[in-house]
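Feature request, filed as a ticket because there's no other form

It would be nice if the structure record came with a short human-readable summary line next to the tokens. Right now we just get the raw output. Example of a typical job, pasted below so the devs can see what we mean:
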Amino acid sequence: MRPSKIVFYILPAFLVWVPVGIMAQSAGRVLYAFEECGEPDGALVADLRGNLYGTTTRGGGYGQGCVFELSRTGSGWTESVLWNFNGPDGSNPTAALIFDKAGDLYGMGGGGDYNAGEVFELSPSGGRWSETVLHSFGSGNDGWDPQSNLIFDNAGNLYGTTENGGTRRGGTIFKLSPGPDGWSETILYTFPASIAGPDGEGPIGGVVIDRNGALYGVTEFGGANGDGAVYELIPHGSGYKEKIIHNFSIYDGLEPGSGLTIGPGPALYGTTYFGGDTNACPYVGCGLVFKLAKDAEGNWTETVLHEMNGTDGNYTVGPVVFDHAGRLYAAAESGGIMGMGSVFMLTPTLNGPWTETILHLFDFKFPDGKDGRSPYAGVISGGGKVFGTTVGGGIHEAGIVFEITPPTNVSQ
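Raw output as currently delivered:
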């Protein structure tokens, strides 16, 4: 869990009997247990062949994290370490990777020239991978501590966020543009270092981009209530104009810790780490899943799709993902009957609330110590499966990669 202004609250034992959603008879399995590299904090990404790629914050040849590939081999999976970070070329990456059209991988982590973080590219050639540092943060007011996912626009520019720094010290939104002399950085917006708002502070989870070029994201703190906010960054002249489109207020969310997803509607979907039901998780709430929809007049309205209740998990993480049937998947970092986190599915209904189905409750002590604990990075969906990682558990206590087969008989 990233540092928070909220005091950590231990869930009382008597709360484990709160009713939960539908328990699915889904088939889940451990694909890989980390050993050499460990503690994967970022979400997975898949290539066209279904191989999985990700990062770990620990381990590797220099002890500063790895980039790994998990490839299908018959009925099993084999791990290959693509890169070992050593500090100047990056360290302890916490964000998901992204592919370009040529099959190169891009990501962010700590380290770099100024030890304030970097953006890197990994390129395959002759069965090996080589790394290029595209940008090192910390040389001026361009921010530090990049923990977000990156995205491409149609022109090949990269966008992301730093959680701290910038001219107003509250984090930045940046763009990296390729050119003949390398990549150049443009700071699109800097947040103020003030958790009291009205602007946001601490952009986390990166941004998403709509068809008009507008960027959307969340801040962990700030906003009118100091509980975090959702922002919109609209192209305006030669720059961008920022607008807060939603302020969280504990009951409708508190401290979002993951980025947004553009989903059905179209609308924005996301999770908050805390907030919602303060009866199940006193003072702070157990976390929730929300939707933000825009009307014809340009006003945004939030709908809470599901409030966690502790027994189905607490401290919700994403970004959320959808399958072809419009079902939503996300994870909870901890909680659940076993206390080690959960993966769940939300199914929309025609005229009512979304229905929760619990796909898996983690218990790293059962069976045989092979299960994971704390699916901090959320999940991805593809080929009728859900894939993800846990930062702990597994036979080496360094985390696992898991696969879950959702049920097909959950009615809408």
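Something like this underneath would help us a lot:
Residues 1-20 have pLDDT under 50 and may be disordered.
The two ends are 34 Å apart (CA to CA).
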